[in-house]
From TrEMBL:
Pfam families: CvfB_1st, CvfB_2nd, S1_2, WHD_CvfB
Any coiled-coil regions, as ranges: none
Membership in a protein family: Belongs to the CvfB family.
Protein's UniProt name: S1 motif domain-containing protein
Start and end residues of each S1 motif domain: 155-215
Length: 285
């Protein structure tokens, strides 16, 4: 019976030393520990804790460099390489970098993690017994991270890492291990999976989660929004088919801001004499 599972830490006995390393054993199996996978000198009959993985040839290999992440054990892993059409490789704390398959990443590669981003993962295996890093499901996140009813957090700055992203919004884990959600109207661009973001808490919800905004306060964002409208006017021949009566979805789809933010910015530009509205359109003066 094969009792040694890859992706786990096992206690094994040094059976003998060979030219390339050590042969480790249990009652049922032998596994090779290469010299470059050992951070210590070993003696025959010595017990040693090792992490097991499969090399490129399909052989089971041991290493004494033990990872933070194992089968059914979750932790944060840093992205070290992005391979288009394949996935991303993460550092789990051992010598072998592990693939997160594209099947477990967003459909669009522009919101895939980049090098230096972090994913909350465990280990799994493909059909060939090769290790994969598997991002945590919503159910796992629910069990692993905290809820809060602390109303004093309202309007406080908050930082965190995105663990799920979609057109509807992005979910993050904050630095204090709380669960937060960023609605698509509260961001200017869709954050990447694994991206570290900075925002502010705009609601402490009854269920213990946080609503978070990545947008600056209204008085700070008005100038940026006004600049975006001006840029759009300049690239559109001095006229855009938008006014303060336009449909909110059309405004969001074009400027990625809410209708109220659009109206504030438009009002600022009109007060400054830079634009005017006529017959449902806005013109550059």
């Amino acid at each position: 019976m094969n009792s040694l599972q890859v992706g786990t830490i096992q206690t094994m006995i040094v059976d003998r030393k060979i030219e390339t390393g050590y042969v480790l054993k249990t009652e049922t199996e032998e596994v090779l520990l290469h010299h470059n996978e050992s951070d210590m000198e070993l003696e025959a009959d010595q017990k040693v804790n090792v992490f097991l993985y499969v090399d490129k040839k399909g052989n089971k290999i041991a290493t004494t460099k033990l990872p933070n992440i194992q089968m059914d054990i979750y932790d944060w892993a840093e992205v070290v390489e992005v391979v288009p059409n394949l996935g991303v490789f993460v550092d789990i704390g051992t010598t072998k970098e592990i693939l997160v398959s594209k099947d477990d990443l967003p459909l669009f590669e522009n919101v895939w993690p980049q090098t230096g981003d972090r994913l909350y993962v465990t280990l799994g295996k493909d059909q060939k017994n090769r290790l994969l890093a598997i991002p945590a499901s919503e159910g796992i996140i629910f069990r692993k991270f905290e809820f809060t009813q602390d109303a004093e957090l309202l309007n406080q700055p908050v930082n965190g890492t995105v663990y799920h992203t979609s057109r509807e919004g992005a979910a993050i884990i904050t630095e204090h291990s709380y669960r937060g959600f960023i609605h698509h109207t509260e961001r200017k661009t869709e954050p990447r999976l694994g991206e570290y973001v900075r925002g502010r808490i705009i609601e402490v919800k009854p269920d213990g989660t946080l609503n978070i905004s990545l947008r600056p306060l209204k008085q700070h964002s008005m100038g940026d929004d006004a600049d975006a409208i001006l840029t759009h006017l300049e690239t559109s021949g001095g006229v855009i088919p938008f006014s303060d009566k336009s449909d909110p979805e059309d405004i969001l789809g074009t400027f990625n801001i809410s209708k109220s933010a659009f109206k504030r910015a438009l009002g600022k530009l009109m007060k400054e004499g830079k634009v005017e509205q006529r017959e449902g359109q806005t013109y550059l003066k």
